[in-house]
Amino acid sequence: MDINAIKVIEDSLDAKIPEGVIQEKWDKHRFNMKLVNPSNRRKFEVIVVGAGLAGASAAASMGEMGYNVHCFFYQDSARRAHSVAAQGGINAAKNYRNDGDSIFRLFYDTVKGGDYRSREANVYRLAQVSNNIIDQCVAQGVPFAREYGGMLDNRSFGGAQVSRTFYARGQTGQQLLLGAYQALQRQAHAGTVKLYSRTEMLDLIVIDGRARGIVTRDMVTGEMKSYLADAVVLATGGYGNAYFLSTNAIGCNATAAWRAYKRGAYFANPCFVQIHPTCIPPAGEHQSKLTLMSESLRNDGRIWVPRQAGDTRPAAQISEAERFYYLEEKYPSFGNLVPRDVASRNAKTVVDDGHGVGELQNGVYLDFSDAIGRLGKDVIKDRYGNLFDMYTSITGEDPYEAPMRIYPAIHYTMGGVWVDYNLESAIPGLFVLGEANFSDHGANRLGASALMQGVADGYFVIPYTLGNYLAQTQLDSVDLGNAAVAEAEAAVNDKIDKLMAVNGKRSVTHFHREVGRALWDYVGMARNDEGLRKALERIPEIRAEFWDDVRVPGSAKDLNQSLEMAGRVADFLELGELMAFDALHRNESCGGHFREESQTEEGEALRNDEKFSFVSAWEYNGDGQTPNLHKESLAFEYVALSRRSYK
Amino acid sequence: MKLHLKIWRQENKNSQGRFENYTLDDVSQDSSFLEMLDLLNEELTEKGDEPIAFDHDCREGICGMCSLVINGVAHGQNREPIKQVTVCQLHMRHFHDGETITIEPWRAQAFPALKDLIVDRTAFDIIIQAGGYVSVSTGGAAEASAIPVPKKDADVSMDAAACIGCGACVAACPNASAMLFTSAKITHLGILPQGQTERYQRVVDMVNAMDTAGFGGCTNMGECEAVCPKDISLDFIARMNGDLIKAALMGVS
Ligand SMILES: Cc1cc2nc3c(=O)[nH]c(=O)nc-3n(C[C@H](O)[C@H](O)[C@H](O)COP(=O)(O)OP(=O)(O)OC[C@H]3O[C@@H](n4cnc5c(N)ncnc54)[C@H](O)[C@@H]3O)c2cc1C
Ligand code: FES
Q: In chain A, what percentage of residues exceed pLDDT 90?
């Protein structure tokens, strides 16, 4: 890939944003969209890949409408998608607290929080439907937290100035997912949705320029099978696992999105990833994933490191004067509650400068002793008991006695498959929902907004926009004898055969760790020209080593977890390069993308709106070739451009 | 630390399984149980052997995918002083150097073996399909604040809804009964105003599905509650039985 040889294609992307004032766009669009007559819906087959919040809500809703839905996922049950792990909550503009919230304010906060790199019209629609989401979930029996009077409780989350976050203890994602899962099971029972568990999508089938099916592998028998349909919906989650260590589940992957990219969909803003400041630091080489400690801990915990670099004394022996409360000192008005990216970057700086704590000196302290002194242990236990227990079970340390150790980790990916206002990709008939699309979060996602987006896409957007597509598209009937099917199957078989045939000496995990390290070091919390160029050299090297020396034991015609992982890592090895490439190209700082060359005198992110107020949508141009760049320019008509400041 | 592992290996559904012995050196006290297995698998792979298949995903105790019987105990967590956790949250510091550890899959007729330590838990989905939901389609919902729910009820509902569907309850039960799992869903929905309309039909249908799927009956052994990583209470079974009786009296079938 050559950064100097990018072919830029301006104005080629039609985001299909409806006309009119922002408040009326979605309503008007809903009226203007074509409908599929209820009795005709059963004549349409729709493939949904993914049964997380986005996929399950989409599949269930379209099943209810009468479409024939086929829903695929890699776990043994739809209830296990990684949406299940979201702890904090889900935003909605209900304004139950009468504290000045509104649809416009939620919209405004999300655009601003995204550091002006998202599409206003999409974000406004998201804020609009946020209220329907809460209604829907309550009706399904989601046991949201209640006040004593029986009304829904809200809390403020991630530094928001209003209390708009709905939650179900520390298991909001689990409860929302169970709501969607149950709706999905109801449709499975009714026969409108067919479920394909332990089935992995390995390629997209495009016929006459339209997405018409997928190639899958049965993960129990190894059997390859293709499915055809009238439209394909991907809701396959984010690509945070490219970094090896992240808060994602082990199986989270980019395969479906990456295959779509290679078949002609565009990959947008791949370098926009979110790093969460409060995770438990790795304990050693054996570490396989990282665990998030809810952000809410920063409400009562104070973050510090020893002022003296290299000081390895236990926390209790370090006197108050010898402690460096770096966030409180640097950001007197926000202190420990600065946004995620600011908190993360500052933790990296102090650790890089040798102030890290813990055996591996790879963390910072999050100290509750003041809060315990002020409020008592019981209050702290009441607020964070579950999290403290989890911390103890993982680290063997007691945060009531000694401060917690935390460090940032990859948590969420804002980038993803480029979609227009209808959530349709550059391949007609291919729709992408949830974390898998490049979404509504711009360069940074606000807390409690990913759940909102996933279910908004699935319950309230795709049922309309997919119908609109089907109603106005003349689709030829296709069958499995089609040449495109044979070609896609051959591509998948070829890749699997190649993986099995290398028969090298290293495990898949070895290479995953290597590419993860390169990404974390060079495309992590702070990026610069030199590092990104190194990544662009290093990743292709690792990829070459992988294809030369990986060992995938067992048989491809059997349950084979090494083979599953090998396919995913092979894709991360390609996607990783695009992430570094995109980061190198975007020579500005915005949201989670911090380019050291572009900072203010105080060391804060400096956007360059003149040059970079656009979405970078990359078009595949062949393996190892420089991708083409489609720019979708972003206009801010309703939220005036401004710079964030937390001093 | 050094460990001796006795692990169940089985090629596929139809083959006969057996225990195999492995020795593993240099296990970190700080690694999780599954990371210990990762280490073994990496060694096996680099030696050219087939790694051990086991289910796992989130590795933070919430997805319910991990499912191992360790030294005869589902999730292996009868190790004081730690509370019940899923096996992905169990850490090696609770084992000692030189220990022999036996690792087996969930064993139940309704959970057929697939490979090594992996079983098929589709039967749980089938129980939910029989009625474990509120029949409300997208778009048909009333304003969320229209029906207040007493906090006490919302809390009990949440206690029950916390079930992660891992199946440890079935694995631990001498009768391989799914009563704890089923009753958790019955309670989660049955206690909320939204779940009232279908309450009695739901319990009848779900219990029927449970029986058809080949799960055993409940004889009040309490083994399920003891291994549950999410503290699902036996009280829910009593509640479900109460609803079943009421359903019978009401003539719901
Ligand atoms: C630890 C953690 C905490 C979080 N907390 C919050 C929070 O408090 N609030 C908030 O708003 N957001 C939170 N988030 C973010 C949010 O949970 C996710 O962004 C969101 O749930 C993603 O939903 P999804 O449906 O897009 O993807 P997922 O839930 O990841 O679902 C992906 C689905 O795709 C399937 N799949 C993937 N690849 C394939 C393939 N190749 N073939 C077949 N199937 C495939 C999987 O089986 C799965 O069903 C959190 C995230 C994490 C990791
Ligand atoms: S792997 Fe998810 S609960 Fe253990």
A: 91
pLDDT of residue B95: 94
- With CB atoms and an 8 Å threshold, state whether A143 touches B158: yes
pLDDT in tens, A441-491: 999 999 899 999 999 999 999 999 999 999 999 999 999 999 999 999 999
User: What's the angle, vertex CA A437, arms to CA A425 and CA A461, rounded to 5?
Assistant: 75
- All residues of chain B having their beta carbon less than 8 Å from the beta carbon of residue A151 are 145, 148
CA distance to A205, A522, A525, per residue, from A59 (Å): 20, 38, 36
Give pLDDT, residue B79: 60
Q: Do domains A3-83+172-275+412-472 and A277-409 have the same CATH topology?
A: no
Domain A3-83+172-275+412-472 maps to which CATH number in 3.30.230.10, 3.40.50.1100, 3.50.50.60, 3.40.50.1360?
3.50.50.60
CATH numeric code, A277-409: 3.90.700.10
Model confidence pTM above 0.95:
yes
Residues of chain B with Cβ-Cβ distance to A186 below 8 Å are 129, 133, 135
pLDDT of residue B78: 66
CA of B114 to the centre of ligand 2 (A): 18
Q: Which two tokens stand for residue B101?
A: 């550890």
pLDDT of residue B190: 98
- What's the Cα-to-Cα distance from A113 to each of A418, A442, A646, B157, rounded to whole Å? 20, 8, 13, 35
In this structure, which amino acid lies at residue A406? I
Give the integer Cα–Cα distance in Å for A615 and A9: 12
Is some CB atom of chain B closer than 8 A to the CB atom of A175? yes
Which residue ranges in chain A fall short of pLDDT 70? 159
Q: Is A267 on the interface with B (CB under 8 A)?
A: no
Q: Which CATH architecture has domain A483-621?
A: Up-down Bundle (1.20)
The alpha carbon of A431 and the centre of ligand 1 are apart by a number of angstroms equal to 17
- pLDDT value at position B197? 97
- B149 by Cβ neighbours in 10 Å (0-12 / 13-18 / 19+) ranks as buried
Q: DSSP alpha helices (H): ranges in B23-167?
A: 33-47, 122-129, 151-161
Q: Where are the domains of chain A?
A: 3-83+172-275+412-472, 277-409, 483-621
Q: Do B12 and A558 touch (CB under 8 A)?
A: yes
ipTM over 0.95: yes
Under 8 Å between Cβ of A176 and A182: no
Chain segment A331-369, per-residue pLDDT in tens: 998 899 888 888 999 999 999 999 999 999 999 999 999
Going from the Cα of B115 to the center of ligand 2, the distance in angstroms, rounded, reads: 18
Domains and CATH numbers, chain B: 3-104 (3.10.20.30), 121-135+147-249 (1.10.1060.10)
